[in-house]
Design brief:
Shape: elongated
Radius of gyration: 23 Å
Largest sheet: 9 strands, mixed
Helix content: 25-40%
Mean pLDDT: 91
Strand content: 15-25%
Distance between the termini: 56 Å
Structural class: alpha/beta
Number of strands: 17
Length: 405
């Protein structure tokens, strides 16, 4: 199927940005961020206790995080460094959710100091949450399904994961926390990113509702919320998922339980594009177009089957199409885009916009192959602005000892 779909900004503007800041260039769009956030809140408008927490590690630019906060979301953090980024974005208190598999003292200090909502990943972490500060607040308990349990909409391999406690451990930890003086609980189930398929959210709600009933039976403490986490990509029918969750809660006897989500890719991916320039085209065999964007800029290229749609700027009306293989410039076989691309005929110097790259780009970028991290621009209501400068070779080489030392 041909590519070259339009993007969220005029081609002329994107070309001017590419000339001003160079390529590769990461571009975020405020309007799309707010549109995606609106879809989330609209889907769960029936739930009075609904909250959405964005996983900060998918996009760690404070300017983008500030837009997400202003749209009504909170932020999910797992380390002291991420709390510092959240503070730069203006988040505090119950706008922050803390969940970590092995938090260090500095991480706990940052979470407690910020007044974040705490989610325990293991029973041992209970001792690190002070009752005097958190006893009257909601204490989250991280959950993972039993090994071998089959849940609709989730691949089996994604369930055998490192996050959370088994259901039995959740119940016993809740009982222990209640004896210590904690008065309210929430349940949080983390799944593999993009591991979920249609039907996951209702299945997760059914699983958590059964566990919520058992926690209440053992503790007689109210269950304030259950967090379905994320794992849904940007193409999922979120309204259908939310409708299924509502029906499931009614059937399970928890119609008023607050629903929380931690949707990341669904929110941020469509709000980002990466501008890349064609460095050269090899036409002898496979019509290979080599771009100046690599797997160091877009780490998801290394995942099997990962694919980004592409648009050649300024060629929407062109009728001369070619079948291309797209590649980055690195001398590594992994630095190649999955599948073939049917695009308008290209030449060296053309600029492509790669779609849905808002997640896992500069936040996960590396210096592999001597690559420098690219600059970031935000298209705001008053026009584009640079929100992160491009990295220079001098900056990333500065950590090495001088020659001869």
């Amino acid at each position: 199927m041909p590519n070259n779909d339009p993007v969220f900004a005029p081609d002329g503007l994107l070309c001017r940005l590419a000339e001003a800041y160079g390529t590769p260039l990461q571009v975020y769009d405020r309007a799309t961020l707010e549109q995606q956030t609106g879809k989330i809140f609209q889907a769960f408008a029936w739930n009075s206790g609904f909250r959405q927490y964005f996983p900060i590690w998918l996009c760690s630019n404070p300017q983008v995080l500030s837009v997400i906060l202003s749209a009504g979301c909170g932020l999910l953090c797992s380390s002291a460094a991420q709390f510092r980024l959240a503070a730069l974005a203006g988040a505090a208190g119950d706008q922050l959710l803390f969940f970590s598999t092995a938090p260090q003292p500095a991480d706990w200090q940052a979470a407690l100091g910020a007044g974040a909502v705490i989610v325990l990943d293991s029973p041992e972490q209970l001792a690190q949450v002070p009752v005097q500060a958190y006893g009257s607040r909601v204490l989250g308990l991280g959950v993972r399904p039993n090994k071998g349990y089959t849940m609709p909409g989730i691949r089996q391999t994604a369930m055998l994961y490192k996050f959370g406690m088994t259901p039995d451990a959740v119940v016993s930890t809740a009982a222990q926390a209640a004896r210590r003086g904690f008065t309210h609980f929430g349940l949080y189930m983390q799944v593999n990113a993009n591991g979920a398929t249609p039907g996951y959210f209702p299945g997760a709600a059914r699983f958590l509702a059964k566990l919520a009933a058992e926690v209440y039976r053992r503790t007689r403490r109210p269950l304030a919320w259950c967090n379905l986490s994320g794992g849904l990509n940007e193409r999922i029918d979120l309204a259908a998922e939310a409708s299924g969750v509502r029906r499931t809660l009614r059937e399970s006897g928890f119609p008023e339980m607050g629903i929380h989500t931690a949707l990341g890719r669904f929110l941020i991916a469509p709000a980002g594009i990466t501008l890349a320039r064609v460095l050269g085209i090899k036409t002898q065999e496979r019509n290979l177009a080599v771009l100046d964007v690599s797997m160091a800029h877009l780490p998801r290229l290394m995942l099997p089957g990962a694919r980004y749609s592409a648009t050649v700027l300024g060629k929407h009306g062109q009728t001369d199409w070619e079948n291309y293989l797209l590649s980055g410039p690195l001398m590594d076989k992994l630095d190649t885009f999955s599948g073939r691309y049917i695009l308008p005929r290209m030449r060296t110097g053309d600029i492509l916009a790669l779609h849905d790259t808002g997640a896992c780009c500069r936040a996960m970028a590396s210096n592999y192959g001597g690559i420098c991290r690219c600059p970031e621009v935000l298209l705001d209501w008053d026009g584009p602005r640079l929100i992160c400068s491009g990295e220079t070779q001098a900056q990333w080489l500065s950590g090495f000892p001088p020659e001869g030392k």
